[in-house]
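Hi all, long-time lurker, first post. I run a small reading group and we've been trying to get comfortable going from sequence to structure in the token notation. Rather than ask abstract questions, I figured I'd post a concrete chain and ask someone more experienced to write out its structure so we can walk through it together at our next meeting. Sequence below, copied exactly:
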Amino acid sequence: MSSWNSVHLEVLYYVLGWVAFFSWSISFYPQVYLNFRRKSVVGLNFDFVLLNLTKHSSYLIYNASLFFSSTVQRQYRQKYGHNEMIPVAANDVAFSTHAVLLTAFTLFQIVIYDRGNQKISKIAIAIVSVAWLSVAVCVFVAIPKLSWLWLISCFNTVQIVMTIIKYIPQTILNFQRKSTTGFSIGNILLDFFGGVTNYSQMAVQSIDQNSWVNFYGNIGKTMISLVSIFFDVLFMIQHYVLYPAKNTDSPSNPTLLEEDAPQLTDERKAYIVDV
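-- Answer (accepted) --
Happy to help. Here is the structure in token form:
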């Protein structure tokens, strides 16, 4: 079993990990608060939330299994080397658990708050159905062979795919509305910082161990950082550069601009006019 070569790098590793945890965890709350304050989820893409729930659920299964199961850890070292450190830290498990709970709560907000004419697309439902059906097949394949590392790698693959595609619906919605109103930029800024610190944590481990195995040994953690950073930069460009005039998420203007009204239902239009 491998150990740390540098105490300073070990401390930095844990600091970066928990900074990433708090940044990513806090990033869920601006959107939750915005939905609560507006009593509306118009502007938040529902496909994004559904795909996100699938992504975080599968990522939680992967992280918890590799972190807690000695059997899975043994299979990991048999595959990547007995001197390799397990690429999952306590902050990864804590983040995944929190993410599942907050994403589920956001989905609950979608159910109880004003949705306008938005709804979950059939494409998103189909993608999620295929994802869970695929891992169900993997379970039946893995059980006879006791291939637990391979099995959780299937869940990790699902979370990678969800990470890549989950941002696309929100990006398209912002483009179609020419506005990011209803989608919290605070979420994005914190998500970006979490992605940077999460990737930095992996780099610190690799520097200390003089090995880059953890980057491809836990490709899911690598991809969640890189893909998040890429799309967060894109969202920041949309919010601050492309569509700045229509962003009205400040407390003094909690409802959508009237310019967005043509995209809503008649009831929502009436509400905006009354306000």
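A couple of things your group might point at:
Confidence is low (pLDDT under 50) at residues 248-275.
The two ends are 64 Å apart (CA to CA).
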